[in-house]
Amino acid sequence: MNLRPEDLATHLERKLEAIYVVHGDEPLLALEAADLIRAAARRAGIVERDVLVVEPGFKWSAFLAAQSNLGLFGDRRVIDLRIPSGKPGVEGAKVLEAYASSPPPDTVTLLSLPRLDRATQDSAWFCALAQSGAVVAVQPVEREALPRWIASRLARQKQRASTETLALLADLSEGNLIAARQEIEKLALVLPEGELDPAAVEQVVADVARFDVFSASEAWLAGDAARAIRVLSSIEASGEGPQLAIWAMGEDLHALAAVQSMIAAGAPVSAALRNARAWGKRQAAMERAIRRVRGDVVVRWLASLAQIDALSKGIGAGDAWLSLQRLALELCGTPAGTAAPREAGGTRVR
To answer: How far apart are CA 176 and CA 210, in angstroms?
Structure first.
């Protein structure tokens, strides 16, 4: 059985499965799903809990012993099994597959895993667990869905916000749901129920957003200059060097040149994008870039990027981050004064 995270609470009100598998790469949602399952077990009178972490040297005999022994005074128990690597190994896979075929009636097993690839989800041990219990896959909340997620969290504490305020909160918390939850809970402590005053929200919340180069790539290909600069500034402020962002820009420019070359030779846009491995959101962003950027300009940008790469290695005079931001603005089709990058030292070019 597959359950969406948002349906888990309703499911647990109706029944409690013998096996739950929570997997994914969003720590907050994984933690909350596991907390809901443990709380449902407590409501069912299950007070004993064994926590087992599969690390190097882990003995699967400990798992077998936990499931076979009744708790103190015969109490039912929760076996909280955590596999940080997502790989139980050959022995573990056999143990889990056998366990799933006949789970003991006096235990609830909660298996916590990271994000799993398709091969692992198709493995015999995982399929056996899924058939005998419930699987909850937790995924990061996409940027477009983040305002709705924040609105639902505010509703839990009897607060609501305008579309503009929700967009602000999303901008300040993107990529960091744990910190976002903390900021939302802070609003409940310091602001009254009902409609939130935008000015008051701005005074209360902090900028806890986290970005990576893939967010920057999507922004500059899509032509979203303000977002591209914000993402690059955030990465720079985190203390990272510009090398990874320079690499991402280079990959995008080479892919853009390849797509334009194939289209010029008569290939359909869809085929050219597939050849460049552009799918999903990246495909949509690349399509916008194709319509916006001339092929001859890409060659010049690649030469500029080579100079920026040299700057990042201490060769030449200049600020690699500032130069990269200026190049990102060119790719976005935005003059350097419209969504201005910061000057070295923190000010902005006007």
So the answer is: 6
Mean pLDDT (the chain) is: 84
Which string of DSSP letters, residue by residue, matches 46-94? Answer: --EEEEEE--TT--HHHHHHHHHS--GGG--EEEEEE-TTS--HHHHHH
Nearest to 139 by CA among 33, 278, 279: 33
Neighbours of 282 (CB within 10 A): 19
**CATH class of residue range 213-332:** mainly alpha
Q: Does domain 143-204 have CATH number 3.40.640.10?
A: no
pLDDT the model gives residue 218 = 85
Residues of the chain with pLDDT under 50: 71-73, 337-340, 343-350
- Report pLDDT for 346: 42
Task: Say whether domain 2-138 belongs to CATH 3.30.1240.10.
Answer: no
What integer pLDDT is reported at residue 110 of this predicted model? 94
Hey, which residues does 52 pair with through a beta bridge? 81
Q: Is 266 exposed, middle or buried (0-12, 13-18, 19+ CB in 10 A)?
A: exposed
Residues with Cβ within 8 Å of residue 257, at least 6 apart in sequence: 295, 298, 299, 302
Beta strands in 190-292 (DSSP E): 194-195
What would the two tokens of residue 280 be?
Answer: 């999903």
- Residue 295, burial from CB neighbour count under 10 angstroms (0-12, 13-18, 19+): middle
In the chain, domain spans: 2-138, 143-204, 213-332
